[in-house]
Amino acid sequence: MVDKLKKQLASRPDILVMSEIIPPDCRVLDLGCGNGAFLKLLEQEKNVRGLGIELSQGKIMESINTGISVVHGNLNNDLDFADDFSFDYVVVSNTLQEVERPDHLLREVVRVGKKAVVSFINFGHIKTRAQLLLKGAMPETDNLPHHWYNTPNIHLATIRDFRELCRLLDIAIIKEIPLGGNGSLLAKTFPNLFAANCVFEISSNGTQATE
Amino acid sequence: MSENTDNLVEARDFLFGKSEEDALELDCGKKLYSVNIRYETYGELLPDGSNAVLILHALSGDAHVCGRHSPDDRKPGWWDEMVGPGKSIDTSKYFVVCSNVIGGCSGSTGPRSINPKTGKRYNMDFPVITIADMVRAQKRLMEHLKIKKWLSLVGGSMGGMQALEWAITYPELMESVIPIATTARLSPQAIAFDWVGREAILTDANWQNGNYSEGGEQKGLSTARMLAHITYLSDESMHHKFGRELQDTASYSFDFKHNFAVESYLEYQGRRFTERFDANSYLYITRANDYFDISAKAGGDLAKALEPAKCRFLVVSFSSDWLFPAAQSVDLVKALLKNRAEVSYCDINSSYGHDAFLLEVNTLGKMISDFLRNRLEAVHGR
Predict the structure, then answer these.
(1) Of A94, B66, B110, B205, which sits most exposed with the smallest number of CB within 10 A?
(2) Above pLDDT 70, what percent of chain A?
(3) Distance from CA of B344 to the nearest CA of A (A)
(4) Could you tell me if A26 lies within 8 Å of chain B, comparing CB atoms?
(5) How far is it, in rounded angstroms, from Cα A54 to Cα A36?
(6) pLDDT for the residue numbered B198
(7) Which bin fits A60, alpha (ψ -120 to 50), beta or left (φ > 0)?
(8) Can you state the angle between helices B158-169 and B279-290, rounded to 10 degrees?
(9) Residue A57 is nearest to which of B334, B337, B346, comparing CB atoms?
(10) A52, closest residue in chain B (CA to CA)
(11) What residues are paired with A29 via a beta bridge?
(12) Confidence class for position B98, pLDDT limits 50, 70, 90
């Protein structure tokens, strides 16, 4: 079962990084849980108690098939079903760029979660920068396969943008794990230019002690 | 015909409450004696007792969920598309039980039953019952069948109310509940429809204060059913099903006989309902619905009311259901999440209105079958 789930998630290095950050026996909220494979993996490997939120009926059905708890919900709305700090970890994997107001969602994420892990596609990556500079057209890459007019990614950002938003929202960055191709040293040294993807571990400043 | 003979089922009766101690205590303070529960079972209970599923029927349903009583039966049970061998609620995997609610008129004790004290029909002397009373009677059946714990309780509409009542009254006795197209407290809108439906019955001269003679016309019950039927459909489904089509006439007749297909349909549904349903049962069961509010005992605090519940929940609503709108399921789900209960929820996209719980067989069926499979695997530690 675990191997099957890992296979399903193999194409998502950010998910594997997140699964290493999340400690055992905690309560996890996965925003945009997809088919529920990640939560199932966490339940099996780390004995977490998981809850997924998902908008798509098809994905909710897949999640029920996977066997996790999944609730139909829209991330453009407040997470008013959850009390403050009622989850140990909130997972936002490649979802932030699809919501109407990433700033509102982030504020909610650090309200309901003691900590959160957020991953997103870095728009500052050299490939996207090069396309914009050389072609003068919106970049289309493996990570961003859509055209500008039909993309669900309506709020793309760079790693630098995300850091700045955290500062504005008074959110503490606990860890920043840039992900380049083949674990490249360049991505670690110059993440905003060479990391295709980035995982942040964050929490609300002050109200919760960081490690 | 082979399909019809494959799934032959038998209705059974369980009688209890002959003595003072064994009688069923009701919320109204009265006791019900010599209570019969009409039920059906399908499939086999596993030796470890882990695969029992209780199906709870809606207002006009009965114990006959699926299959046929005889190969000549024109129609199978009311949820035959969902329940049966190899179907979503697979009776070759699960031991499925369904019973007629008390107050009903399809075999279980209700207004049409003989009052042991008078030797005559109860009619309007039947005590007013509640959803909790129905559930207490089902609990007695559970004991009779020697079922230790339900794998799941599944019910739509009023059946969902019973499932919720079970979850807070007997939290140790189930692994999961699946409340579908339902609510934790009947809305004022639904109460209003029930009121008008009952008024139609109560003001029908033929009803004779409940002592109506069978075979006579029952305009009151028929009107109540027509009204209720409208609330089970949606604007979109009515457009789709009837449009403005005329029936039995090529043009407007310029009188008040039915002209439109939708009128003819309602008339037919109303009349057919009077052939199988007791007007008094209709009064009692709708009243039980009106009184249903699991938050009442907790001063209106739904989360507090749900605190005793320990099982997993799969809550389902339908996007076009305006009798039990999604918002009411969302309230339920939020209250459960506040309690950190294990809950899944989907608002299924459907144009069928409240009736969707009987019609969206593929989507709902897949969810239920996957959910049940996971619950059974969890019980078996897989």
Answers:
(1) B205
(2) 96
(3) 5
(4) no
(5) 9
(6) 98
(7) alpha
(8) 50
(9) B346
(10) B344
(11) A51, A90
(12) very high
pLDDT higher than threshold 60 for residue A211: no
Q: Cβ of B345 and A71 within 8 Å?
A: yes
Q: Residue B43: CA atoms inside 13 Å, Cβ hemisphere, count?
A: 26
- Which residues of chain A does B335 touch, with a Cβ-Cβ cutoff of 8 Å? none
* pLDDT tens by residue, B145-173: 999 999 999 999 999 999 999 999 999 99
pLDDT tens digits, A81-106: 999 999 999 999 999 999 999 999 99
Beta bridge partners of B24: B32
The 8-class DSSP code of residue B211 comes to T
CB under 8 Å to B66, separation ≥6 — which residues?
Answer: B7, B9, B42, B76, B77, B79, B80, B82, B83, B84, B87, B91, B96
Mean pLDDT estimate for chain B: 96
Which positions in chain B touch A2 (Cβ < 8 Å)?
A: none
Is there a contact between B20 and B98 (Cβ–Cβ < 8 Å)?
no
| Residues of B assigned a catalytic role | 157, 321, 354
Q: What is the pTM of this model?
A: 0.95
Contact B300, B331 (CB under 8 A): no
Chain A residues with CB under 8 Å of B377 CB are 67
The chain A residue lying nearest B370, using CA atoms, is: A65
Of A27, A72, A82, the CB nearest to B347: A72
- Quick one: chain B helix, strand, coil %, rounded to 5? 40, 15, 45
Query: Has residue B226 got a pLDDT over 80?
Result: yes
Percent pLDDT > 90 in chain B is 97
Phi, psi dihedral angles at A100 (to 5 degrees): -65, -45
C-beta separation of A22 from A42 below 8 A: yes
Please report the ipTM that was assigned to this predicted complex: 0.95
Residues A28-73 pLDDT 10s: 999 999 999 999 999 999 999 999 999 999 999 999 999 999 999 9
Flag if B370 and A65 touch (Cβ within 8 Å). Answer: yes
Residue to test with chain B: of A4, A69, A74, A83, most B Cβ within 10 A: A69
C-alpha gyration radius of chain B: 21
- Percent of chain B exceeding pLDDT 70 equals 98
Q: How many residues does chain A have?
A: 211
Cβ A61–B370 below 8 Å, yes or no?
A: yes
Report the alpha-carbon distance of residue B77 to residue B63 in Å, rounded.
8
Q: Torsion over CA of B239, B243, B244 and B247, rounded to 10 degrees? A: -130
Question: In A, residues 81-110, which contact B (CB 8 Å cutoff)?
Answer: 81-83, 86
- pLDDT value at residue A12: 86
- Chain B contact present for A79, CB below 8 A: no
